[in-house]
Structure formats: structure tokens, C-alpha cells
């Protein structure tokens, strides 16, 4: 596992040994199983390699130690202050859309602005239904019919999922990436050059339905210094209008117009 992460980062043994301030000989013995690491050594190497908390626990287990990072439910009492901060962000974003997703784009929370936009595009949401935003964006029959520049948006989005797969090294993220790549039309998109390349400071998501046009850009936030797996894997995506017409539409929906 240690060799897997070192190679995934593109480092030689000498590179990792230097960054971890240990000898290359000691690192080689650890990779070959000729030396057993201490708990502190596992944590040090994992930190230097920027291994996500979930995979750090897996490294500790493989070395014979108990996991050190917990994974709490988002509704757990110990995360109450974080949930309060998330609620604040989501409320402050109104009337513009905002969503909270996990590492693999499973929808966890939405604000009213996001509900209004999605229901306008695709119809009423099913209460309690599990939604994966990656599938909704890339699949042929959810958001794609309304996304004018779908090829450009999906080109960049899948590249970001590829980066995630490299970063976390999990079968689950690799499976998500493979599923997204398999959707009709995606292989052609990935082979092509984005039409909007260099056209503006950010690539908008341009939705159109009937005579309503929405042009938005997004920001993605993550929690700083997380000490919990759930929190490390959270992402808060906020949507902002690219033009006054979009802003007027979103504010109008909020006012019931």
C-alpha cells in the first residue's frame, strides 16, 4: 500500500524518504515488509503523501494498528457546529443555488434556491430520493437536455473526477469515473477540444428551458483542517449568476414571480 501511494504521487523512494526525513534504506525495508513501521511512522508517511483520512485508516490497519480517524454521520451531535456553519452558508447563498455533496457527488443537502432551479428544469424532486449530481450532469436524460454547453462543462467536470480518482485511489471513485465515461456521447467529448477554451475568465453552465436562460458559474468550498472523514469529504458548491438576466430570474423565483 505504501508503494502504491508513493507511485501514485509519482515519487521515487529517495523523494519520499527525503520529504519524510528518513533514510531511503529504511523506506525500502518498509515497502518490502522487512521492517514493521511504528504507528507514528505510518501517520508521518501518510501525511507526507497527502493520503486522505479514509485511506490513512486503511494504512494503519494494514500495519496492524487501530484507525485514528473517525467517520461521523453528518447528523451526529459532535458535528452540530459544522452543520450550523453549513446551514449558514446555504442560507446566505439564497436566492442563488447551493448544494452540499460528498466526495463522490452524492447529494447531502440543498438550499431553496437549488430546489427551485432543479424543479424548474426537471420537475418536482422525489422526497428522500438519492441523487448523484455527477450522474445528473453527465447522463443523457437529466440535466443534459437543458445544458446548452454540455460538452464543454462535462469535459471539465470529468477531468476533475479524474483528478479525484488519482488523489484518493479508491475503487469507488474509480467506478464513478468509469460510469461517467461510459455515458453516451462522453468519449467523443473527451477526445475533443472544449469549444469555450479561453473564451472567458470562467466556464459558465448555460441552462435553457423554453424562453428562460440561466448562465451560472460555481465555487466549490471544503472545510479547512478536517479531523473527521465525513468532513474531509464534504464539498459545498455555490452557484452565482453570470449576467443580470439570470440574477433577475433567480430573485424572481424566490419572490414567487
Your description of this structure?
The chain is α+β, with helices and mostly antiparallel strands and 257 residues long. The chain has two domains: 2-62, lambda repressor-like DNA-binding domains (434 Repressor (Amino-terminal Domain)), CATH 1.10.260.40; 77-254, Beta-Lactamase (2-Layer Sandwich). 49% of the residues lie in helices and 12% in strands. It is built from 13 helices and five strands. It has helices at residues 2-8, 13-20, 24-32, 39-48, 53-62, 80-93, 112-122, 133-138, 150-168, 171-182, 186-191, 229-232, 244-254, and strands spanning 98-101, 107-110, 205-209, 212-221, 235-241. Strands 2-1-5-4-3 form a five-stranded antiparallel β-sheet, with helices on both faces. Helix 2 (13-20) crosses helix 3. The longest helix has 19 residues, at 150-168. The protein is elongated, with a radius of gyration of 21 Å. It starts with a helix and ends with a helix.
Write a concise synopsis of the structure shown.
49% of the residues lie in helices and 12% in strands.
Tag the structure with descriptive keywords.
single chain; 257 residues; alpha+beta; 434 Repressor (Amino-terminal Domain); Beta-Lactamase; 13 helices
